[in-house]
Specification:
- By secondary structure, the protein is mainly beta.
- Among the domains are: 193 residues, 3 Solenoid (Pectate Lyase C-like), CATH 2.160.20; 115 residues, no CATH class.
- It contains 4 helices and 109 strands.
- The strands form 6 sheets. The chain has a 94-stranded mixed sheet that branches. The chain has a 5-stranded mixed sheet with strand order 2-3-5-8-11, with no helix packed on it.
- The radius of gyration is 56 Å and the shape is rod-shaped.
Length: 1273
Amino acid sequence: MSFRQRLWWCGSSFLFLGMLLPTNVSAQSVTADGTLSTTVTSPDNLNFTITNGNQPNGGGNLFHSFSQFSVPTGGSATFNLVNTPNIKTIFSRVTGGSVSNIDGLIQTTNNSNPVSLFLLNPNGIIFGANASLNIGGSFVGTTANSVKFIDGTEFSAVNVNNPPLLTISSPLGLEMGANAAPITVQSNLTTGLDLILEGGRLDLQGQLIAGRDITLKAQDTVKIRDTVITPFLAQAGRNLTIQGNQNVDILALKNSGGALRSGGDLRLVSNGNISGDAHFVSGGNVSFQTVTGNPGKFISLFDPIIYANGDVVFGDYTGVALKVEATGSIEGGNITITGPDTTVPSSDPDFMTLTTQSAAILRAGVKTLPTANVPKMGVGSTNFTTGTVAGLPSGSIRVASINTSNSTGGDGGSIILNVAGDIVTGDLNSSASGNGVNGGSINILSNGNISINGTVDSSIFVIGNSGHGGDITIATTNGNLSFIGSLYSGAYSNVTTTIANGGAISLSTTNGNLSVNGDLDSSVNSQGTGKGGAISLSTTNGALSVNGGLYSYYSGNGNGGDITLSTINGNLLTQGSMFSVALSNDNTGNGGNIKLSTTNGNLSNQSILLSYSLVDGGNSGNGGNITLSTTNGNLSNQRELYSLAYSEQGNSGNGGNITFSANNGNLSNQGELYSLSLSLGNMNSGNGGNITFSANNGNLSNQRDLYSSSVALGGNSGYGGDINLIASKGNILGNMSSLYTFSVAPNGTSSNGGSIKLEAKNQISGLTLLTTSSSARAGSVSILGHGDLAIADTVVLTSKQVSISIPFFGTVNISTDGTGRSGDVNINSVGNLTLNNSRIDSDTKGLDSAGNVTLTSNGLIRFDNSQITSSTSNAGLAGNINLNASKGIDIGNNSRLSALTSSSGNAGNIGISTGQLTLFNGSEISTSTQGSGNAGNVEISANNVTVQGSIISSQSSGSGNSGSLDLHTSQLALTDNAQLSTASSGLGKAGNITINSQQVTLENSSQITSRSQGTGDGGTIQINARSLFLNDGSQINAQTNFGNGGNLIFSLGELLLLRNESLLSAEAGGKGNGGNITISSPFIIGLGNSDIVANAFQGNGGNIQISTNGIFGLKYRPYLTDDNDITASSQFGLSGTVNISNLNFTPAVGLIELPTDVIDPSQRIAQGCQTLGNSRFVVTGRGGLPDNPSDRRSGDHPWIDIRDPVAFRNSNALATGEQSEKRAANVTPPIVEATGWQLNAKGEVDIYAANNVARETTVTDCAGFLAITSKAF
């Protein structure tokens, strides 16, 4: 009912009352109509006594009939039951057709029971200001036509011609006429039990108090009013029912304790509007319902406050700020708040909220009500139960919708739902529009489940001054939270100077799951300053799932809000998108942070995550940080993540950090990640953010590309961010995915590229690592293995000459003349280190050097079809390559270590330090030059070096010189066409080769070469070893095609052995001179057409200087033959010299002085060299034994006896010769150490052992010797 309707209703009611209320009551106000035995007496026509009447069968019912029944002011009407004391109920009717004007007392006397009184007057009843009741039982005042009884009889006030069928039965109900007359109350009416007023309409003022129930019922409307002088009160000890079939209109706000009170249930019933401007206080349930029992329509223009010690149920509500508090549940329909409640007393704890906002406050399941005015349950009361909201536990709220929005220029009102049970609601709207308005806050708090299905809106549309979207808080302590729909708390404006903020959004559960299916948006569209609202979703003990979008962007000079999703004990799943963005055509702020985390649970992100700062014409802010983390669980990301600072024409800020962390679980990434700063105009860019993946106790899988970069197309660029992938106790697995960190300024100055760091226990695979900078230093790459680390299918680039694809822009070529070093690469493994199908490139195309590459292992380093390349194509130096392994290094299956230059910069050096180095199956260690720069040096330090079908080289094909090879090893073995080379095929000189070793062996066409195929000179090859063996076409050469032959210098402690067409050559072609060959070795043996050559073509032959104790098989000849030759001839020049001299030998070399009395010889020396008894074999001399007791013995280390055998001959030895010969016939000859050698008649070398038996002849005495043919080699 509208306010205008109310005024009409009030006016018409007063007009009606004016017609009905006489100024004076007639002289005879109470008169019997004679139809029953009713007796009325009055001594003064003021006070009337009513006796007798009809009592059917002596029962408890008594019937009276009056033609008139009115009580004058100050008078009384007394039902005297002296003659009928056992009466319980009096039924009285008025049949005369006049209104009953009650302005005095109605009472009963002389009754033994509390007596109830029915007063029927179809013509109307008026209780004046002085009316009162003294009824111990119930009072029923009605304008019904009759009373119906259970037995089917009725007591009628309109059909008086037929005698009534009086009954002892209980009344069943009232029979109302078609147009029943009204009932008006202006007084205080009190009954002991029930109070019932039923008429066509009820017009009520004053007070109505009943010990039990109060029923106020009208066919049309129940209207209640009060004044300051006479505040209205309807108070029932039990239930209070107000029913107006068409309307209920209550405006009773003068009673500070509440106008409507019930000890039990309070019901307002109407098929029309139920207008309730009153405070409702109920000790039971409160319901607003239709006549058929459905929730009724509730309106209020001024002040509706409901307190219920039970449930509250109503249908749609429209009106001012609403407050409902119940110990039970609350169920409502659509709630629409039209304005604040300006009549709330200041003592109310929600005074400010209700009086300043269009608020809706619903609290269910409260422990106690904030009022002491709840009536005590009346006589005959029964207990009632809460939880009558269907399907919900006690203390719940269910409403269809709540609307506290304001579209007329004021703030949106707050929505407060606070329950101990569940909350079920649809749309919630506290939005606002206007000048400087704010959205109302929404607070939904529950101890049970929360289910919201609809749109929640606290946003604003601002015209003019600043405003803020309302905060939204939805939280439950012990229950699930489910949201399906859309949620808005943003701010929108078309005014450029408006300062606006989005409201914060918080959804949380303590013990329960949280599910969002829809969009949450706290964005701002304003060109002023401000911030998008923060969005927070959290659970303590429960799962969190999001299927929709979370948006907090600022379109203007403001910041995007933070987005946070977290669980303590539960899984986290997201599907959709999350944006925290700052957008503007001018300057803009920062993108907000996005954080997803769980402590004990799995995290699965299937949402696109964006934190942008984007601007067209001005400067951008920073991209926000993006963090995904779980402490005890697996982490999986399946979508793209962007942290971007972007400006079309101005400066761009920094890209934010992106961090993934799974402390005790596996980490899997299947989405591309970008942390970028892009400036596409002529200004500068900021820094790329860091990208960090950490799986400390699990495996790490990265399936897509990662970018951390800074790009300024016209100005200067900032630093590329660092990329860190850490799986200290697990593996890092890629899927041909790339890690990019670069700084690019094609037309300006760049900063350094970021660093890349990988840590794993046993495996890193399927990755491409790129760090670069167009004009500064590329970042370093660091790889750490905590166990036996295998790096497979991985490429590492710290490059200055690449083309890169820049997201949101396209492909950019790094400047070819840029400055700045390539980054260093450091790979360390606690255990073994294996590279399989992998590649490491550090190159430069600028003036600064390429980075160094260092591999370190406490165990073995293995290469399998893998490469390390450090190169330069400009004046910058190629970087160095260093390998350090405690146990060994295996380089196999076409693997390669390369340090290259193709320009004026020098190639880098290669250094290897290990226990054992093995190259096999086409592998290569090389430094080379194709330009004017020099090739780098190769230095190898190892106990053993084996090269099988592979190459170690430092070569030149340009004008630069080859580098040197330096090997320090106990054993060097080259087999199967293996090469050590410092050759030159251009203008440069061949490099030098220096080998320090115990033994050097070349087999199967292997080579050590420092030859020059161009115009440069051959290099020097120097070998310092105990022995040097060449076999099967192997070579050591320093030959040249045009330049001077290189030099060969061999300093050998024991033996030089050449077999089967092996070659030592310092030969020169063209006009070059033959190189010099210097050999110092105790023994030199050449077999099978093996040669030593220092020939020349047009130049002079080289000089050959040989110092030895003996040369076997080799002979000087002026030209090469099919025999074993030593030659230093020249075809057109002077022949060189061949000088063979004795080797100066000092017996004391290598000996130490021993004490003369170490042992008693008489106790230690046995007869002769017999193998029986206690005989021993004592070696005195040099060689003949392996370097280490665990090594096998070899003929490559002959023993040399430096004693005179004659001194050991004696008669005893000779005497035992015959005996020894006999014994040898039955004893297998032992294998003994050799003591010397000699040439036999055939020119063969015989190796013999003094003091023992011969292997192929008869046993001799200790002075004899054993002959071994050269076939033993």
